[in-house]
Amino acid sequence: MVVDPVYVPFLPARRDAWQAYERLDARVRRRITPLWTVVPRTGPERPRGDRSAADTDEDPRTFGPWLTRRIDAVLDASSSSVGWADATHLEGLVQAAASGLWRLATQSRLRLVTGPERNHRLQRYTADLALLSGRGLGIRVLLDEPPEGSRSAELLELVDRVRLPPSQLDLLLDLGPVTDTADAGKIALAALDLLAGLLPWRTVVLAAGAFPRTIQPLASGLSLVVPRHDWLVHHLVRSSRPEFRSPLLYGDYSAEHALSANIPSVRRPGPPWGLMRYTAPDAFLVAPALTRGPYRAERVRAVARGIAEAEVFRPGRSEGERWLHACAYGSGSDGTGNAETWIRVGHIQHMSFAVAQLTGGEA
Description:
It comes from Actinacidiphila bryophytorum. Pfam families: Beta_protein. The chain is an alpha/beta fold. The protein is built from eleven helices and eleven strands. The strands form two sheets. An eight-stranded parallel barrel has the order 1-2-3-4-5-6-7-9, surrounded by four helices. A three-stranded antiparallel beta sheet has the order 8-11-10. Helix 5 (120-133) links the parallel strand 4 (110-114) and strand 5. The longest helix has 21 residues, at 339-359.
């Protein structure tokens, strides 16, 4: 039976995310249309929407194999899935990335992505690959403030430049990191009113990310409760625009902060802790857990118990819940994971729960 997707997670093309997507229950995965952003390999973190920080001096001897492995992993994870692939961080490396972009266009079911703020020549290049693929193109519009009239003209100019019909174009409205439901809701409604009605888009996605980038230290076993402003904005928009005529899909950044895909793959060692995370109906439970140090395993299990004993915890609902429960009540060092494990588990649990919320539990 063919079912329509209901959820668009914006995922970084990193191992924790693609492994999480692969491990989702098949009934959940068929309701998801992910957007994969290829992360930069080296250099500083890329400012959101700033093209000036793109790499231009990568060594092809190291960049080529790195990109091939990453694209292979995304293709394997999404081999049977429709979705999008955004190579924005590779746009300063078109020649070095040409083979990888060609494979995304010709050997997957993913649709390539461009955006109004990007280089016009590269917009055209991406559109040519999209035309070759026959799957159309995603247009990602960054919305950090309410859009003005000039944004609609800019968007129409891009549509004219890529020379694809609206039936082959997906409008991806990206609010980025949000910390206030009312403010983000105003931006979302303004964008829908100004941009979504310009053309009969194939699909309209409204995405935001509310997972925190960092949190303050907490007492052992305690979790910070962070409102899911991304989900709350979705409800605000749905209640304010019930008559919206185009398919409007809910999108978020899963259980990871919205700027994660701007951080290079090759990084310096991080802090001696990571974040355990759990998605509840209207909030995230987030708690720091040690990645090294004395009594690490016992302290990690205490953090997991704090989540597993919360009233909102749903035992056994997904592999994410099952892992957290096993970690909470296990013994020894095996099964406590590391920072990457906790992100992967968080993605699995979050994406499973988001689909359940959007379908009333009927994936």
